[in-house]
Each structure stands twice: as structure tokens, then as C-alpha cells.
Prior knowledge:
about 500 residues; alpha/beta; TIM Barrel; 2 domains; eight-stranded parallel beta sheet; two-stranded antiparallel sheet; 18 helices
Amino acid sequence: xxxxxxxxxxxxxxxxxxxxxxxxxxxxxxxxxxxxxxxxxxxxxxxxxxxxxxxxxxxxxxxxxxxxxxxxxxxxxxxxxxxxxxxxxxxxxxxxxxxxxxxxxxxxxxxxxxxxxxxxxxxxxxxxxxxxxxxxxxxxxxxxxxxxxxxxxxxxxxxxxxxxxxxxxxxxxxxxxxxxxxxxxxxxxxxxxxxxxxxxxxxxxxxxxxxxxxxxxxxxxxxxxxxxxxxxxxxxxxxxxxxxxxxxxxxxxxxxxxxxxxxxxxxxxxxxxxxxxxxxxxxxxxxxxxxxxxxxxxxxxxxxxxxxxxxxxxxxxxxxxxxxxxxxxxxxxxxxxxxxxxxxxxxxxxxxxxxxxxxxxxxxxxxxxxxxxxxxxxxxxxxxxxxxxxxxxxxxxxxxxxxxxxxxxxxxxxxxxxxxxxxxxxxxxxxxxxxxxxxxxxxxxxxxxxxxxxxxxxxxxxxxxxxxxxxxxxxxxxxxxxxxxxxxxxxxxx
Length: 494
């Protein structure tokens, strides 16, 4: 550890939503290194250039092999360790939504989880890992997902197959995937402690223990034999667990106890997983830095209270979607200041005014707020103009339009939807607010035009359109409609 912080600090790039262009990644990687990142946790999903039978998994905006090789080559040159992440049994929507693979769902109507009992499922996962590893030479670590593998089970299976060998078969599935992965990566395979499955036999300690304890044998003390269950499974020799928690009030003592339980199960090393964005709201557009800073400071306490040799590293997760079908969370450029604060806190073992000044210097920002959402202060880091404009839109677009359409007495009193639909328009009153409406529309059209240009430098068109439809169009279209109706009314009057 350096200055009390984890030695390995992986920045998670969640590419299943708003994947940055390769050119933007090339701009931002040196900054991530300068801020204290030591590696990248790369969750590709449909942005990986799958080929052959896996071609349907590849999105139209997926990276090309040449683009990925260039990004990975630059990352290695900067000294960033590369850790690919391939979902295996859970969060498989990007695979199981396709008709070619839908028959491999564990529950027919849910694309979330892969059926681990089918040989074809294991062959699919192995093929995915093989293709990813072919582009990631000499990696030391590999993350095999296994997160939330049983969401459907709580609906259909949890009361009907709990004694039918699902646990041993799931465990064998994990072992098979881990063993196959270790043929490529020499050191270790990572799995998360975050599963909500009622029947998952992999993650036993902590908050999931009560869900699988009923399947384990009781020992002579009357406790569920969870330690024996895992230690004899062979899983601890193949994988290292990653303990996820994004809360600002993370339970330090509980996490320390959890780590000890893992050690008793035979796991010699564990990883932590924090969050620098994407963990405070499914449709969050701005990042509350203070929440994430507190989360990392709590993780530092866990590290200091745990055995010195148990922590392998920490992954700073930056979720871009909660799952493959959900809306976008905060865009990566919007969350760069949060990432900077969190990385510097981890690297220095805490956060102080001096560290804050260093973060501001690295980002080219004059004042970095942590306890409120970011102001519209400018920065010089890659994508800083996206942050400035997104902040402006998020704070002021809806409120300014609502102010005109819902609180202006001339609009609500003489130009309501009822009046506009039936053309019952007072010939004089509408002139009281028409200049304000036109001016407001002109202002926001200019801002949105600038934002679109800034976003197009960072993201593909599909991301720009999605963000605009979710965050801009609802308000802007209402304002545009009022202005159009005003124009028609004035023409009719003339």
C-alpha cells in the first residue's frame, strides 16, 4: 500500500452505455494515470469486436480490433494494468436478448441469467473469453462477472429446485469458467461479492450468507458449514472475490468481519470495489462528489483495519447503465472530477486541502466543490466542456421552461393547452410573453447545439441522441411547441 491506500487502483470503464470514442480514451488515459490510477477494469459487453458465431453480440458502434489494440497499447505504455471483464452467468442481457442465444436463458422470459447447466452455455462463455483474451495479451487478472446471477430465480426457481443440485452445478460452472480463464491469465480470476441470487453457491459470507446457508450442512456448533462448503469446493484456489459497496456510510466493522470470513473459507486475497459514479440514481445526470469521496474514505478505514497482506487492490466502478436495458447514468466526462478526487484520496490515504489543490491543478479547475453538484466552472481536462454544458442543462433547462409555461400568468391564464387547441387566443395578451418565449428558445437551442458538438467529439451519434431524448427533448419540445403556436396565432391575427 502507498500512504495507507491500496496499491492497485483500477478505473472501471463500463462500456455498455455511452462508450467513448477511441480518440477520447487516448486523450483521457494519461490523465487517469496522473491522477493515481494503476489500471483499467474494462467491461466491454457489446462494444467488443466479437467475430464469427459471436458476431450478433457486436453493436454497430463497437470498437474495431485496430482501435482496441491502439488503446490497449497506449495503456500499457503508460504503465496501466489491464483487467478485462466478461460477464458470464449474470448480467447477460446483451447476449441473451438475441434470438440466436435466447434458448440459453435460465428462465425463458428473462434475458438476465445464463443457464449454467447446459454445456452450450459454458461453450459460449469460453468462446467469449477466448476472443477477449486474444486481444489482451499477457494480462495478469481477469474478471468473470458472476454478478446478480439469480434475479429470475427468486421468481420461479427458489421454491421448487432448492434441493435439486443447483448449487453444486452452479459451483461447477464457476469452476469451469475460472479454470478455462486461467489458461489465458496466469495469476487470478476475479468474482464479485454482490450476488442477489437466492441459490448462488459461490458468494457465501456476509449479506448473502442467509440465502445459501439453508443448502449447507450444519456443523457440530449448529452453524451453517459455509467455510467447509467453499474451502472444499476448490473455488478459493481459482478466484479472488471482489467486495462491492458504494454507500457513503459503508459499515467498516462489517466489511472487516466479511474479509475474515473469506480468509477462513480459503481465499488468501480479496479486492474492494467502490464507485466514482453511476451508483446514486438510475438516471442521474450529475455526480455528487461528496458521496463518492466518503465511500472511498470508508474503504480506506476497512483497509487499515484489515490484515496488511489480504488486500490485492480496489476497483473504482463507474457504472454507465444499471443494466443493458436501463437509461444512461452520468457520462464519463461529467464524472472525471469525482474520479480525480477519489483516486487522489486512495493514493494519498485520505483527502485534505492540499490534495484538493492538486486535483484542481490536474483538472485545470479553479474551484472544485464536493458537497454540492458541480458548478459551471470551466476546466481544461478532456471533455470538460461536456461537464460545463451538461451542468447548465441539468440545472436550468427544465426549470426555466417550467417557469415560463407553468408560472407565467399570461401563459397559464390566456395561452393554456385548452386555448391553443381551440384557437381561443386573446389578440393582445400573447404579445406580453411572446418575446420571452422566443428568446428562451433561442438561448437553449444555442446551448444544446454547443453541447451536441462537444458530445460528438467524445461519443458516437447513438449516445448523443439517447442523452438528448432523455434530458433535453422533453423540455425543449414543449417550449418549441408554444413558440410554434404563438407564430400561428400571430399569423392568424394578421
